[in-house]
Design a protein that fits this description.
The chain is an alpha/beta fold. 41% of the residues lie in helices and 19% in strands. The protein has a seven-stranded mixed sheet, sandwiched between helices. It has a four-stranded mixed sheet with strand order 13-10-11-16, covered by helices on one side. Strand 3 and strand 4 form a beta hairpin. Helix 2 runs antiparallel to helix 5 and helix 3 packs antiparallel against helix 4.
């Protein structure tokens, strides 16, 4: 996608130094475009934990490069075997909810373990990280192509009037390597000339919607309006939302979805007002070992994300406190939306019912694995 007319991915190998990976530091958006160099496992851990990068697919890609850095930080194969285990544990501990993180780490461990010499392991680690990024771009593009007909149908029904889409948090191109998940159908529709308008939840406490989704859509020229998190229900009651599309950080094989806190409430409002509620996801976010969404580990982040807010003041980015100094704050990062509230899942393989049967129909190769777990 583009920033100021220039094409970017959210993560890329340095053009002249293959030992450096570059990212857009999302903490400074939308007010500053800061490019950050990652060079070590610790750099990758910090980037994920402190949300320089965020979004399940991008977290996975960053972790994959973190394992590549691990291969560069030792001088022998024997050292690497032990160090990879340590790096895997450190990276996995950064964000426990997003399943892409675990998936990318396991893929790297398997790939690196399949070759012998240190040089081969380094080359394999780099190639695997790059493959993960390339695959994510194609996956997200296909999510958009499969979701496009849903928007086209509403546009036909409205005789070309703008299709009003509500989204939550940021599941855009900068949460993936490119295209995004929830935003991919929107970008595809806009690029095809279909009139769309996006209601952008601010998404407290970190305001990823107000800061990042709004910035993304603006850079691409898509009409949008930022709203407070609790306005969605009101808009739905008054017929101002045609559909909701959100992302997910982990989805059970039965169709329950863990996404940014507040998603569950949007799904409840959508159900009450007969507004279609779609979840867009790459299959890498499906947890094939998990049946019940309420058992998904929910990350609790620093309470300062709730008590303080960051913004631009006198051309400087600054933080201010919102709450009384003595007041405690809780910061649950995700909630779980039950499958019964979800109209359908939009994946790179197509659209399906948010249920075990629906998911396994799209991914029949997983039926045996799921069956064996039920025995």
């Amino acid at each position: 996608m583009k920033i100021n007319g220039q094409s970017y991915h959210s993560i890329w190998l340095h053009p002249t130094d293959k030992n450096i990976v570059q990212i857009i530091d999302q903490r400074f958006l939308p007010h500053q475009l800061v490019i950050k160099d990652l060079k070590t496992v610790n750099d990758a851990c910090f980037a994920i934990k402190e949300m320089l990068v965020r979004g399940a697919p991008l977290i996975g890609a960053t972790a994959a490069y973190g394992m590549y850095f691990a291969s560069l930080e030792v001088n022998s194969v024997n050292e690497l075997e032990t160090y990879l285990i340590e790096a895997n544990e450190k990276l996995y501990a950064t964000r426990p909810t997003a399943i892409n993180l675990q998936w990318a780490l396991q893929r790297q461990l398997k790939a690196i373990g399949a070759v012998s010499s240190l040089e081969e392991k380094r080359g394999t680690a780099l190639q695997t990280a790059q493959d993960i990024c390339k695959e994510d771009i194609e996956i997200c593009k296909n999510i958009g192509l499969h979701g496009l007909p849903l928007i086209e149908e509403v546009s036909r029904q409205k005789q070309g009037e703008p299709v009003n889409i509500l989204t939550h948090c940021n599941a855009g191109w900068i949460a993936t390597v490119d295209w995004g998940t929830a935003t991919s159908p929107i970008y595809q529709a806009h690029n095809k000339g279909i009139a769309v308008h996006v209601w952008v939840d601010e998404t407290r406490p970190r305001n990823q919607g107000a800061k990042i989704t709004a910035w993304e859509l603006g850079e691409h020229g898509i009409p949008h309006t930022v709203i407070v998190d609790n306005a969605g229900g009101h808009l739905m009651q008054h017929g101002m939302v045609d559909m909701c599309i959100v992302g997910t950080d982990r989805t059970t094989y039965t169709g329950d979805v863990a996404n940014k806190i507040g998603t569950y409430l949007k799904a409840l409002a959508a159900k009450d007002n007969n507004v279609p509620f779609y979840v867009a996801l790459p299959s890498t976010t499906i947890d094939w070992e998990l049946q019940d969404g309420l058992t998904i580990p929910i990350e609790q982040r620093d309470s300062k994300e709730v008590t303080h807010i960051q913004g631009l003041s006198n051309k400087e980015i600054t933080k201010v406190q919102l709450t009384p100094a003595k007041s405690k704050a809780a910061n649950y990062a995700f909630d779980v939306t039950p499958a019964r509230l979800i109209t359908a899942l939009i994946t790179e393989k197509g659209i399906c019912e948010s249920s075990e049967a629906g998911i396994l129909n799209l991914f029949p190769e997983k039926k045996q694995q799921v069956y064996e777990q039920g025995i």
